[in-house]
Amino acid sequence: MNCDMRIIPVIDIMKGLAVHAKGGQRNYYQPIKSRLIGSPNPIDLALALRSSFEFKELYIADLDSIMGIGNNLDLIKKIHEISKMKLMVDSGINDVEKAKEILQISIEKIIVGTETLLSFEKLKSILEFAGYENVIVSIDIKDGKILSKSKEVSRLNPEELAKKLELMGIKELIILDLLRVGKELGVNVDLIKSVLNSVNIPIITGGGIKDIDDIFLLRDIGVSGVLVSTALHNLKIKREDLLKI
Hints:
Shape: globular
CATH class: Alpha Beta
CATH superfamily: Aldolase class I
Oligomer: single chain
Largest sheet: 8 strands, parallel, barrel
Radius of gyration: 17 Å
């Protein structure tokens, strides 16, 4: 049992607004409607998450940057400065220049997602530039397959890729099931167990969390952290629930 499990709230940003990510269908994402606060302003939302749950860290996905249609870098910088939360940011980082750009904000961790990863060689250069301890790789999965622009990455199964990344020196992984994101379908326990059994580094999971029982389940199989969004905004997970973790 992992008694030090981290619960990490997520804010997905698109065109300057926090949006409700659902099933990876980004063309249909709408501004988030949260019961915590009546605004899709990402700064207000970060402050609401901090005050309502006392979260000290936050995962941000810059969807514009991931899709290559702009970025929300200035906004992310303001969230960091105003909220004082530790940030882990996925902004579609796939080369050293993009890593340098996001590290200038003094964020806690940069996320390199397989969705935008171009090659293992590019990943190695990012790791050497940013420092292995500052990078988390997200294994992005859709329809049971790894999502990536790199054929050498997408041809592997999640367990094979996790092991390869561990051997490269990666210190922490995210397993992100994009089809389950925002749908509260529950987690893919079999997949997560299989990846956990493949490596000896901490695993964070995301996608499908519907209530506190899912978090207990993940804690008990050895997951080190959980990314949560929808269940927080519709209050299916409350502050008193998290105190039980």
